[in-house]
Batch of 4 targets.
Target 1
Amino acid sequence: MDWRSLILLALFAWAWEARAAAPDPVTSVMWDYYHQRLLNGEAFVFDDKVRLEVPPFAEDARQVPIQIDASAYRGKVKRILAWAELNPIPRILDFAPGEHLEPSLAIRIRVEQATPIRAAVLTDDGVWHIGSARVEAAGGGCTAPSVVRAEAGWEERLGQVLGKRFERGEDSRLRLQVSHPMDNGLVGGIPEFYIEQAELRDADGQVLGRIELFPAVSENPTLTLDLRGDQQTELWLRDNNGNEFQAAF
Amino acid sequence: MRWILFLLALGTGFAHALDYHLQPRQIADGVWLLEGSTDNFAAENGGNIVNIGFIETADGVVVIDTGPSRRYGEALRQSIEQTTGKPVLRVLLTHHHPDHVLGNQAFAGVPIAALPETTRLLAEQGDAMAENMYRLVGDWMRGTEVVLPTEEVQEGTLEIGGTRLQLLALRGHTGADLAILDERTGVLFAGDILFYQRALTTPNSPGLDVWLADLDRLEAMPWKQIVPGHGPVTTDAAPFVQMRDYLGWLDGLLRQGAEQGAEMNELIRAPIPERFAQVNLSRYELIRSVSHLYPRYERNAMGRVDRQD
Ligand SMILES: [Zn+2]
């Protein structure tokens, strides 16, 4: 093969790869920014095998349910990041599922306006698989007055956890809701006050999964995790004021 | 200059197009209906998705709800006067939702009556609802402002101009829902306690169980003809049958979802039974209702698991 053929082949391969790379399914002008800022510009692919479910529109911009399912990469997922690209506080969570947790999760968030949402799933080969969705919204979810703080006695309920374990075949789904205002610092001069760390542990204190939370997460946060097996678990939470809360499932 | 003329022509053409073309239809002796579409609020319909009625008495006219905008209210008042040649004596509001009350401005000088809780809810939520209507239907809303009721009504009999109306105070749709039966003709204005062939809406509902109980009280009234808040008029009980079926399905979906650990995103994609194929906007309203109602079902299905020490 002479050098001209090699160049042609290289050009062909390059063109092929460029064509094969899927375009941004939500065509967001903010993608490059978040790719650099949150993923350090690392290798990525837009990937519909990372399922990111959101409602088509936000009926309540303060409580928008999002659901991430990366079970297509079960056993290979190191981290899952989620963010809302046009939010004043874009970051939602940073989830490191251990081997006993499915790489899936559901949570509710605040959106300030219609926005693309992303779930970036880092697999053990170093590639980020990007799930994308878009939610329409009239807006104002991040700057709406606190519902929790308007309720009498909310301080006494701080850190209370409602929860339940649901048997799903061999596995268990864990759902919980924590009483917490999750103040994001954008409302009424109230400084940031939010749960920033969550760990799910087994009965021996071994960590099954870690989640870092950000104040895009709604008030009284709800969280759903899928556990492989049926072992007893403990949930440990800490907010940015150092309050710790624990619950057992 | 030509440009300006062209733009003027466009402008007047558009202003001219914003006409609700209200055509009152007589549905019983002295009872008229203005039937809206079963669609969602949109610039194409100016928010005219609602059923508005009026009843002619010996002395004048009783109006039931005033429509989605000032423009609608003005057209309504004009068509009432053209149809009956009588003045409007009283406005009765079935509940505080914007499509039913934002025509109030056109009835300045006429007593506007509602349940006390309706007035409270309208004072609390009216401006935000009106703002949302501007966003959804645009120019049709120009000049529309919230006008609060000036009189209270309670459950019981109300006599106006020799016409006896039976009023029922219900709660299932908004917490304060007035149903009105014209005794003489048996026409029942059900307000939004009845939606027919159009999916029901739940943003202020105190609970589907409350709503289901309301249906029993309402159906027991001596009605001959039913005007639902949204959807076609009937002389049979079909709207009651459909409402019970639909509310029961929605309640069961949310209850079973909560018991089985379903996520909101799973429920909004749940299959809608084939028998509701005629019910307009059922998917859209399911998405909304899951947001309004599911948190209560979730909390009921969960228990305290935090370490309390
Ligand atoms: Zn209504």
Target 2
Amino acid sequence: MEPYRAELDAQELAWIQAAQRGDREAFGRLVERYQQRVFAQVFRLVRRREDVEDLAQEVFVKAFRAIRGYNFRSSFATWLSRVAVNHCYDFLRRERSRPPAYAVSAGGQSDQPLDVVDRLESSEQDPERQAVLRDLVGKLLARAPADDRVVLVLKEIEGLSVEEIGEILELKPGAVKVRLFRARKRMLEDWRNLRQEK
Amino acid sequence: MRCKDARAILIGNEADKASAALLEHVAACPSCQAYARDAEGLRGGFRAFAREAVPEPSWGFAARVLRRLDELEERGRRANFLELVGRRVVYAAGVLTLLLILALVLPASGPLRGPTTAQLYWAQPDATLVASNPIFPDETGEARDSNRLAPVVNSTEGKQ
Ligand SMILES: [Zn+2]
């Protein structure tokens, strides 16, 4: 893999190296640079607005404690994503230890206006359809096992490449593809079940 | 092409690169048509989801992270101090307990223990006995000489 250092901007490199020596001020600059990205990632993974700030703060605390181990082989953004994803994984697993994970009946969602999706199938930009689709995918992701959810969010929502996801999850691209395929398959089954129930 | 293979492509990573064989199968298979429609629906759902507004960090977030780091470090220092003190208390208590156990368990005499006061007291008469032994004064040369000279002086005085 091509080292990230070459294309790293000098300012960021200086901040990272200073943070590795324990300089908090320098780390604060990195927080300012990446906070939005971490917020988005955490929100998409956990889907709970009220928990995002606390989780993002914990991600940066973990990152500061681990930054000496960052070796510039991947981009700092990718390394930070790894910290964030692992932290959200733990959070999701803790949360998931209560309800059953997947393929549960969509009971209690009878007000889900799935017919809107069919009715508006041709008009992708329709705000009503957008909202329905978004809620539907949100529900499906919330029901998905943590492994599926993480890989789908990184690929389908964040738009990362298989290689980048591999770096974040420390998996070979082939293994990422397999996980993605299975996750998509399971989610599509759930999507179809939801529509048939309707 | 079988339905299973067609569906694997439809949800695969290269779903957009549809081959002629796939298109042909889907066109002729209503079940796979429905599957393809659902797969496309889900993809649209992901796109809609990706466009959703995400929460923004509130003002001063970075400063709060740094403050949190300070708090955690302070807490760590305090915990270390308490742990150190606690460990010392435990060590001291351990040593005291050990001493107490030794005092209770070990016999009153033996190689590990010196004579008691009582033993020293009862040992004293023996020491006096040894000190008053009549052999001992004779062993000092001075005493012997004075004893020997005395009769000589006395005999000279008697002659004069
Ligand atoms: Zn078919």
Target 3
Amino acid sequence: MKKKLFFTVFIIMLIAGLAACGKNETKNTVFSKDDLSGKKIGVQLGTTGDTYCSDMEKDKDGTKVERYNKGSDAIQSLKNGTIDAVVIDEQPAKAFVEANSDLMILDEEFTVEDYAICISKDNKELTEKINAAIDELNSEGVIDKIKKNYIGDDTGKYPYETPEETTYDNGTLIMATNAFFKPYEYYENGQVVGIDADLGQAIADKLGMKFEIKDMEFDSIITAVQSGKANIGISGMTVTEDRLKNIDFSTPYTTSKQVIVVRDNNAIKGNTNLADKFKNDFIKDNRYQYILKGLANSIIIVFFAAIIGLVLGFFSAVVRSWHDKNGGLNILNAIVRVYITVIRGTPAMIQLLIIYYIVFASVDVSKMVVAIVAFGINSGAYVSEIFRSGIMAIDNGQFEASRSLGMDFFQTMIFVVLPQVFKNVLPTLANEFIVLLKETSICGYIGLNDVTRGGDIIRSITYDAYLPLILVALIYLTIVLVLTHLVNKLERRLRKNER
Amino acid sequence: MKDNNRETILHVENLKKAYNDNVILENVSTEIKRGDVVAIVGPSGCGKSTFLRMLNLLEMPTAGEILFEGTNIMDKNENINHLRQKIGMVFQHFNLFPNMTVKKNIMLAPIKTKLMSKQEASDKADELLKRVGLEDKADEYPDMLSGGQKQRIAIARAMAMNPDVMLFDEPTSALDPEMVGEVLNIMKELAETGMTMLVVTHEMGFAREVSNRCMFFYDKGIQVDCPPEEFFENSKNDRLNDFLSSVL
Ligand SMILES: Nc1ncnc2c1ncn2[C@@H]1O[C@H](COP(=O)(O)OP(=O)(O)O)[C@@H](O)[C@H]1O
Ligand SMILES: [Mg+2]
């Protein structure tokens, strides 16, 4: 068991090491906007950079646009040489280049654009209040100060502070954002900070509301605001025609432009060794906490989802067996069949998004609950089929003997059939929960900080892909190995009971 | 046991069973009296098992009526689980619960149906194990037993519910020949206590010695129903005589 684990770790490290060393330095070939045609361009999905470059994709030179969920992922791909340039907003670009000496920003710029706050079309009243707040904050110079605190030479000198006389009588203002966009929004010591975060706080203070930030994928922000998951979206969002169809925007609070980030051919490669990388990734600023907290969340989700899955799956399997053996329960059986077909016929990620944005749209529940419910429902469908085939595999004579003794259907199920089924399906069931554990790595799509997203946050801070990804992989692997070991033990004990 | 004053325990009237359009049994009528030991014989596939399994509704009759101790068991308002407690059944393939010890097999139903407390069920199991001569196997799992032992446990398990009638569906057909005797002996002892029994069997010796009635199933129904002496020596039914000469 231990040997196997060490061996696996060794292999993974080896592959990762080879990947890191064997990488060829790809020379930069983009020096102006015109050079972009025919190249691979990285953008953040749903941003104005995406819109601009998508037009270029239509030319005949084979220009290709790679769309990433996070700006930092695009930057990582650029560093790896997977893409040739990244078109992204100026300020995040500066932050990226500052952190990565091997990147540079081209002088040539795209057009200037406005950032504004998005609000649901159904909430004109809030839009007016926010516009009024922005006007006040502008005339008081607060917005300028917030910007200065993050951009330029005086960063950190003007931290926003809530005015003393502020009251919180008007409920909570929930802001949706995608915290991978420094300096507008990013993680620092486990908190989402940045210009947009402070602006949101300042507006909430003006409105006399409590303030809360929900971090999610960029392309989920508008949906979240529409569905009421959040009241406002502030995420360096440019006002565009397309967006205006779905959402209202406040008056702009700042301007930005799109710039082109490329590899710097003249950069001196800093030779960071693995130990330094490790320190930077995990030790500095207690960054390991992102992974640790994520791990706790992942485990809680899997644990409760597995329980829900077992109960749902058990119930569904019993309904279906009842229907098969006794007839009746037609409606319930039909519902169960639809449930199983739909869940097994759609990706877990879509189910998670549907449950978050549609089912729980107007209810304010924690993302953990959403994830537990979503994965519980998902798992239940698979568990049901596992149980059902397990029940089918039990000799009909077992049912008949039990029923002939006067035990009813449920007594027969619970005391005679299911204990045998459980033992037979245990390995398959364990497999299902192992799949479930790995499936939860999509929690990031609703902005839930599971262990995968913990690694993602570290990646977005340190721009080092290897160690965070490998650590996360190792964590999953370890849990899977431990689970497998426990199941084997349990299985052996159950077998012993019979011989 | 010739007297006709014994009370009727099972009354079967015009019973019919068909799978889709395939009629297996038709117009089956009979009365079983308390204390009857009925041997049911007939060629394979003629519906003996089907008949037996309809008596405790493991199979649903297509038409007809079954009264058990005066109660119409097909009446939807009757609790079939309560009725089944009074009708024990022993299967060709034993159908012991493999995940429980022998004693747990016997105790499960009396406890779960609330017929007995745990202590009562345990005492009952001990008594029955003694009766079938397997008290030393109480804590074994069924897989450790021989076929003959398994069937004796299955009989004990059915007896634990204190049934009024016992149905046996070819209880010795799955056994090696050397184990048939031990099971038949238990059944004979049971018959001697006055238990009402319906036994589907190919053991003509058992039918002749232990039963007080022999039934010959053929052509969708009961063709002959008479005491064993007449059944084996003086039958005028050609089909039965053909059948007997083929099995004896
Ligand atoms: N579930 C079923 N569906 C269709 N036909 C069946 C079913 N069960 C039994 N039969 C048919 O009913 C007939 C009687 O079967 P059975 O009562 O088992 O006969 P026996 O016990 O006398 O050998 C057989 O021809 C068998 O094929
Ligand atoms: Mg049969």
Target 4
Amino acid sequence: MNILIINGTPKTGWEEYETRLDEAVGIISGEHDISHFRVRDMDINFCTGCFGCWTKTPGKCIYRDGMDEILSKYPSSDMLIFITPLITGFLSALTKKTMDRMIPIVLPYIKLFDGECHHPQRYENNPSLGLILYGGNSMDEAVGITFDTLDRLSLNFHANRTFKKTVGPEEIKEVLIYEISNH
Amino acid sequence: MKLAIINGSPRGRKSNSNRITEWMTSVMSENTEVTKVFAVDICKNSTLLKEIQGCDSFLVIFPLYTDAMPGITKELMESMYEYKNIFLGKQIYFIIHSGFPEASQSIVVEKYTKLFASLMGMKYSGGIRMGGSEALQIAPDNYFGKKKLVYEKLARNIENLEPFDYEATEYLSRTRKRGVIVRFILNHMNLNGMYWDRILKVNGVYERRFDRPYEIKKKD
Ligand SMILES: Cc1cc2nc3c(=O)[nH]c(=O)nc-3n(C[C@H](O)[C@H](O)[C@H](O)COP(=O)(O)O)c2cc1C
């Protein structure tokens, strides 16, 4: 299976989680093709809201940066997993800026899907969506809101399946293996 | 009173967000001192937040981006948290607006704005979520007649240090029911498609509108 991981963890404060994640990715890579991107180590600009990715260079942002590398994995991915700690009670800015830059995967046109407006997909394949939150308790309001955001995003990104989990460092490997095998 | 307008749009001064806040500031009295700051500047230099130290109220406005605030707005919020002392105990208002017509698409992020206010130790004094804001790029003010008047009412709420008026909030934030005709148009007549196709043609890339630049071409 092809798995695309977008990791929006900031540089400091989550070292134990990150070490455990690397171990888990190392193990799973034996069986699956994993592309793991740490946004903090990449040059990824904020979306400027110009819609050039729809109207000037269809399917591609008009600016060249690390997003090309991430998006080139998208059409062949079976799963897209966002990994982030909660920062001020929500997805990190690093994670959110990457999500914004993913709008070239849909078309500009608007259609009703179950009575609500969304954009049709550009690619035939749409990976399932996952969200792994470092720390956090699934009973927390912040976690609930962040999970609900992923559910909303799955409508816009036409993902047929989603999973959302909070993890402690020692659970990362187990959760990844479980979710991948249940895909 | 001193009001800070915090604009979270990636389009900065040319944003729909800025146009909405201009409707509001245009009716404010001379006694209201308004300072505007923009996420596009603060993401480069977070110390700019010191410019709004001493304000009584804070109005944060941002567009919906992939079902939440734009990344640049989230970065701004993280910076605000670092400068928490500037904001502690003060009033905060939010305006969230979305391209899609359904204001309900912003319900989840609206919940987050309330949580953010409480994490900041601020007084949440009201929030608007309005659909269909991309029309602001092309339509003249009179197209938004009633909505503009309602924003003016909200401006007075802010000046009086009171929460947003309930009816005004409901009016702007409700998801309007689509009649059979509107549903038919959306499903079959492709008016919105005509809008994008026109721009694609002007840019000379209409034929490439369905391009899949990241797809790996299969070998024959
Ligand atoms: C990257 C990107 C993502 C967007 N995501 C959404 C969305 O999820 N839902 C929505 O209703 N509108 C979405 N929009 C549309 C904006 O909310 C809309 O264009 C808004 O009017 C922009 O306001 P501004 O000029 O103040 O930035 C998105 C726009 C961009 C550029």
